[in-house]
Amino acid sequence: MSDMVRVTPQEDPAFWRVAFGAGRGNIIDRATMAALVKVFADARQAPGLKAICLEGAGADFSFGASVQEHQIDQVAEMLAEFRQLILALLESRVVVVAAVRGRCLGGGLELASVCHRIVATADATFGQPEIALGVFAPVASIVLPERVGRPHAEDLCLTGRTLSADEAHDIGLVDQVTSQDPSIDALAWARTHLAPLSAASLRIAVAAIRADLTDRVRTRLPELERLYLTELMATKDANEGLNAFLEKRRPVWSDR
Prior knowledge:
Layout: E1 5-9, E2 15-20, H1 30-44, E3 51-56, H2 75-90, E4 95-100, E5 103-105, H3 107-114, E6 117-121, E7 125-127, H4 138-148, H5 150-159, E8 162-164, H6 165-170, E9 176-178, H7 182-194, H8 199-209, H9 211-230, H10 236-246
Parallel strand pairs: 2-3, 3-4, 4-6, 5-7, 6-9
Antiparallel strand pairs: 1-2, 7-8
């Protein structure tokens, strides 16, 4: 447990409630990534644990990864550490249900999309806005086509547009829309469907059903990171988009 991540075991030790983030938007910076990696590593070593309810602290799930850490002097380390987080979740061998309230954007949506299930409030919104900053989302490029199909994944990643919770439910991105605290429904689903099961068998089943996805994240994601670092970050527009965001102005694209 850290200031960035709070783990609350439930009355049944088979379930944890994990809240991450501090400050507006629960930005997933490198410190938050490291804290979450430890939580998922601890989950791997907790033999009776069956499921985690993952949520952002406060009014939003997450605005995404730190834009400051996308800049040229930090982006390689940031991408590598975000990959480590995604793999830690995939290799935890527990079911992870994302409870989403408010905005779930960028790296926040990538993290939620790797979860087994997403439960969202009716006013939640979802988007991969990286393209509006002149960059792209490596994890989403792998995970979203599997979760929602290629046409919907391309729509999200290539337009950067935002979906309502109902729209996200319609395309299969969100599994349940609720009018109450989504963590209540997330944990209720886990207790109903997972509590009767063997934790040992469930862990092996999680590893099996996720084996192909885990392998693709482990092997293909570094290739997309190289594309990001060697081609994308060599363009003027990628740097212009990031700088414009930090300077709170509209980007001026040169198309090169």
